[in-house]
Design a protein that fits this description.
This protein is of the alpha+beta class. It has 4 helices and 11 strands, in the order αβββββαβββααβββ. The protein has a 5-stranded antiparallel beta sheet with strand order 3-2-1-10-11, with helices on one face. Strands 6-5-4-9 form a 4-stranded antiparallel beta sheet. β1 and β2 form a beta hairpin. α1 packs across α3. It is globular. The N and C termini lie far apart (74 Å).
């Protein structure tokens, strides 16, 4: 019995070790691909989101914000438009970055309401909201570079996006960050833009 048990744990250890080694090597390769990808991509300062709060309401069950939020590509065109309501008195948008060769590439991550932020702080639950990756990542391409951009640019942008949302980004200090834009100052019926290129990374401006 002892020999069978020892053999079982040896096999289990080898399987786990092989899985961890494969995971590490794969992520190291993906990390390495980001350096040439970042070099080949242009990085203009551009508007990455357009925000229009349609209405705000409050009831006994809490607040609600209805908004139309467009994700823009580097060419200034709508990449995707999300129009819906979120629970809360105002909205947040989070971004992940990939930072290579002196360039910072921003990737919209999630839209969520202030009510979800309070729940996260109070109970440690995950922020509920709208995940944004599927709106601009498709077929191993990232359409934030624009439909008129080359396939190579869309592919390289996808490599950077994949890193930004990978476990490797959490341990590769200095190569990825998370930014949160607070949309509480957005007044209903007015267009606001989230722009790259500021000293703080992103800036919200009335258009």
């Amino acid at each position: 019995m002892m020999r069978k048990s020892a053999r079982f744990f040896t096999v289990l250890f080898n399987v786990i070790f092989s899985f961890v080694l494969f995971f590490f090597v794969l992520n190291a390769v993906l990390f390495g691909l980001c350096f040439p990808a970042g070099t080949m991509l242009p990085l203009p300062e551009y508007q990455i989101l357009r925000v229009n709060v349609l209405s705000k309401s409050r009831s006994f069950s809490g607040g609600s914000v209805s908004a139309r939020i467009a994700i823009l590509d580097m060419q200034g065109n709508d990449c995707a438009v999300i129009e819906r309501s979120w629970n809360g008195d105002y909205l947040y948008v989070t971004f992940r970055t990939a930072e290579f060769n002196g360039k910072t590439f921003f990737f919209p991550e999630k839209i969520y309401g202030s009510e979800s932020a309070v729940l996260k702080k109070s109970f440690g639950s995950h922020k509920r909201g709208t995940n944004l990756l599927s709106y601009y990542l498709e077929n191993n391409q990232c359409f934030l570079t624009g439909n008129r951009s080359s396939y190579l640019h869309r592919k390289n942008m996808f490599i950077l996006a994949r890193f930004a949302f990978s476990p490797m980004a959490a341990v590769a200090s200095g190569f990825s960050s998370r930014y949160t834009v607070n949309l509480s100052e957005c007044e209903p019926g007015k267009d606001y833009g989230v722009f790259t290129g500021s000293e703080d990374g992103l800036v919200l401006r009335l258009q």
